[in-house]
Amino acid sequence: MVQLAPKDFVQSAEALNDTYNKEEAEQYTRWLATHHYENFHVVTFLLPKRLHQDFYNVYSFCRWADDLGDEIGDPAESLRLLAWWRRELEAMYAGEVRHPVFIALEGTVRQYSLPIQLFSDLITAFEQDQTVTRYQTWEDLFAYCRYSANPVGRLVLRLCGYSDAERDALSDKTCTALQLANFWQDVLVDYEKNRIYLPLDLLAMHGSSERDIATRNFTAPFKSAMQDAVGVSRKFFLEGLPLVKMVDKRLAIDLDLFNRGGLRVLDKIAEQNYNVLASRPKVSKLDRVALVAHALLRAAFTLM
Predict the structure, then answer these.
(1) What is the DSSP letter of 198?
(2) CB neighbour burial string for 263-302, b if at least 16 within 10 angstroms, e if fewer
(3) Which of 205, 247, 283, 287 has its CA 20 to 30 A from that of 38?
(4) Which of 128, 129, 145 minimizes the C-alpha distance to 137?
């Protein structure tokens, strides 16, 4: 089968109308998962090989939903396509599969008893992105993270054999922290999409406003707001850390890596004096290598 990214796939009548067997479908999700975000290779390297295909399948669902929301360039069309993606999801749970992602994902869902709500919540987040571009309060933003980030952690836990409320709650802390760190890193990137995730109440409390972002005016009030925002994300990371000691060692390495990677982003923001309006804070390749090495050493000496 032809390997196409989601945006190209939905524009191809041939791809949409073709039929796929399980082998072709799994080949497609494997290709999609290994030809986009470079950090995904690290995750699959650290996870047991028996889980790789299942992670590819779940990742591909998320990647499709994300791209249908962010890569189409037309909110109305994105909403139409996300509604179609939801119908395809519901069809899979009803035993009807057509799209290669769902052909591959069906077996994973059945094997690990993955609830439809986790996938549905992710679609809801991408639908919300088409209509909500500002968040007034922290609670508004946390509610969004409940849909956009937390389901991913819960899916990972279930693939690794965990489905209890205590681990879910800790995972939610980590996933929300990661989402927030990404928002603070991408203030300018998001603004170019007409989105601001810094709560407007937070900006106002410090004497800043959306105007500082629009004009890239790094004021003392904006810096103060960013310091608070980074502190909130750091607090969530610390609250989620106990999960590392509540899972098997292989998953613990990944969780430790995710936490330290997110904390490193926050450190990078602090190192540039919280001025995310001048340039996007970046974690270098050397930083990433150090993070992986540190996670492996921690596993060897403290997670045994």
Answers:
(1) S
(2) bbbbebbeeeebebbeeebebeeebbeebbeebeebbeee
(3) 247
(4) 145
Q: What is the pLDDT of residues 97-115, one digit of tens each?
A: 999 999 999 999 999 999 9
Enter the pTM of the model. 0.90
Q: Are 4 and 15 in contact (CB under 8 A)?
A: yes
Residues in contact with 284: Cβ distance below 8 Å, sequence separation at least 6, in sequence order: none
Phi and psi of 196, rounded to 5°? Answer: -130, 120
Rounded Cα distance, 58 and 54, in Å: 6
Cβ atoms of residues 244 and 303 within 8 Å: yes
Question: Which percentage of the chain shows pLDDT scores above 70?
Answer: 88
DSSP 225-288: HHHHHHHHHHHHHHHHGGGGGGS-HHHHHHHHHHHHHHHHHHHHHHHTTT-TTTS-----HHHH
Positive or negative: CA dihedral 12, 17, 52, 266: positive
Is 127:49 a contact under the CB 8 Å cutoff?
Answer: no
Q: 136: which residues sit within 8 A by CB, 6+ positions away?
A: 199, 200, 201
What is the rounded distance in angstroms from the CA atom of residue 46 to the CA atom of residue 66? 24
| Token code pair at residue 96 | 């009807």
